[in-house]
Amino acid sequence: MAEPIHSINSTGLADILERVLDKGIVIAGDIKIQIADIDLLTIKIRLLIASVDKAMEMGINWWQEDTYLSTKAREKELMQQQETLEARLEKLESMNRIS
User: Fold this and answer.
1) How many CB atoms are located within 10 Å of the residue 21 CB?
2) How far apart are CA 7 and CA 18, in angstroms?
3) From first to last of its 99 residues, what are the pLDDT tens digits of the chain?
4) CA angle, corner 87, sides to 86 and 90, nearest 5?
5) Can you give the pLDDT at residue 52?
6) Which end of the chain is flanked by fewer CB atoms within 10 Å, N or C?
7) Contacts of 68 (CB under 8 A, 6+ apart)
8) Is 48 within 8 Å of 60 (Cβ atoms)?
């Protein structure tokens, strides 16, 4: 009886995925639209595939500062907004006291 091929392939795929996430892989490309040697549009595309640990090791942690992805970042933004509003309110109240 023949051994199922898909189990061998899935093990190979799992190994490849583990290596890619462990080491990381970068895919880069540029798209440029020109007419008569005049650049109309340039798009730079960079894709990094890596584990979170590897990305952080490389100094990449943008998701920690993104207010849509991180509750800590959102709380920080809200605290800054609150401090700004409180300072503006205090300034307005002090202006009213002087008048």
Assistant:
1) 16
2) 16
3) 555 555 556 678 888 888 888 888 878 888 899 998 888 999 998 888 888 888 888 888 888 888 888 899 899 999 999 999 999 999 999 888 876
4) 85
5) 82
6) N
7) 74
8) yes
Token code pair at residue 38? 């005049």
Query: Which helix (H) or strand (E) covers residue 28, if one does?
Result: strand 25-35
Q: How far apart are CA 54 and CA 61, in angstroms?
A: 10
Q: Could you give the CA distance from residue 56 to residue 48 in angstroms, rounded to a whole number?
A: 12
DSSP 49: E
Q: What ranges do the domains of the chain cover?
A: 1-60, 69-99
Which spans in 1-99 are helix H? 5-23, 52-57, 71-98
Is the CA virtual torsion 14, 16, 20, 25 positive or negative?
negative
